[in-house]
Amino acid sequence: MEAKIANGLLVSPRIDSEKIARRIGTGGSVQFSRRFREQDRLQVLVSAQLQPKTRNSNRHKTVSLEVSCSYKNFPASLLESGGFQAPFDEARILKNKSQEIRPYLSGRCIYLVGMMGSGKTTVGKVLSQVLGYSFFDSDTLVEQDVEGTSVAEIFKLYGEGFFRDKETEVLRKLSLMHQLVVSTGGGAVVRPINWKYMQKGISVWLDVPLEDLARRIAAVGTGSRPLLHQDSGDAYTKTLTRLSTLMEERSDAYANANARVSLEDIAAKLGHRDVSNLTPTAIAIEALEQIEGFLKEENGDFGL
Ligand SMILES: Nc1ncnc2c1ncn2[C@@H]1O[C@H](COP(=O)(O)OP(=O)(O)OP(=O)(O)O)[C@@H](O)[C@H]1O
Ligand SMILES: O=C(O)C1=C[C@@H](O)[C@@H](O)[C@H](O)C1
After folding, report:
1. Is residue 6 within 8 Å of residue 271, measured between CB atoms?
2. Which residues' Cβ are closer than 6 Å to ligand 1?
3. Which atom in ligand 1 lies closest to the alpha carbon of residue 275?
4. pLDDT in tens, the chain (304 residues)
5. Is the CB of residue 89 less than 8 Å from the CB of residue 72?
6. 206 pairs with which residues across the strands?
């Protein structure tokens, strides 16, 4: 039997129905619990209802099982939030962490870098909110600068070089400001001049497995992403191939960032089997932890 728990964690409690039968005879119910990973207080409760034997079921007794799961005393029903709502504990951890490190940021901007679809906008908004910073998306600022023309149209009408110049100009202007979280364009890392501007703040690389990026991007379509767009063929496979090529060209550039947030590392820490159920809040917490690590390295341990 496999029970699906909020956040995609899977447990497989093994149940010895014979033992249940011996204890409760031919009817009634029994409850028992297993504790997984004690420190996380993940609890699985299994209630078993034995059906009395019928003429047709003389070899097997029927056991109907109800499984309920809780995590840190929150029932699974609450945790299965749908969308991106953070479980209460995550929100509290995020708030505490942001309050801890905010004074040490000294108002410096946070630049999120990473491949298309890596969640820079989604996570950036969470970070800006909790830090009380303003949020900007550099692609949106370029679009506004070209009279509301979309990035895809800018590529088509004026070419990539024109877009890159605009992007650099946007980053230059942002570098004069404070208390911003900036979601940068996926290719902003390739121009060294852009790093000169981003180094005024703290840069954070959202490192997401390419398969997950391809899945996310294929789900919404490639229309708004000119470097990935294709008119035909399997969207997932084509996107993955293209992302792999771009990643080969860019991985060293992304690694220039002051801090790296690896979704695979977060999933491993939280005991998730893959990264697809990590909430933006969990990712934002890791971003703040990595920023904290960078600040400590930069200034020596500041007593946290
Ligand atoms: N943690 C997450 N888990 C699953 N899907 C996510 C997660 N974060 C973002 N997404 C989804 O991935 C897609 C891309 O997210 P988002 O726009 O935040 O990325 P981005 O890095 O800003 O992309 P781009 O640079 O292409 O604008 C969106 O559809 C978003 O809902
Ligand atoms: O990875 C890239 O090169 C790009 C990413 C997007 O954010 C946009 O900046 C544009 O589509 C180019």
Report:
1. no
2. 114, 116-122, 139, 183, 186, 216, 220, 225, 278, 280, 283
3. 3
4. 333 333 333 333 434 444 444 444 434 433 433 333 333 444 444 444 444 444 444 444 444 444 444 444 333 433 343 445 566 699 999 999 999 999 999 999 999 999 999 999 999 999 999 999 999 999 999 999 999 999 999 999 999 999 999 999 999 999 999 999 999 999 999 999 999 999 999 999 999 999 999 999 988 877 778 888 777 778 899 999 999 999 999 999 999 999 999 999 999 999 999 999 899 999 999 999 999 999 999 887 655 5
5. yes
6. 261
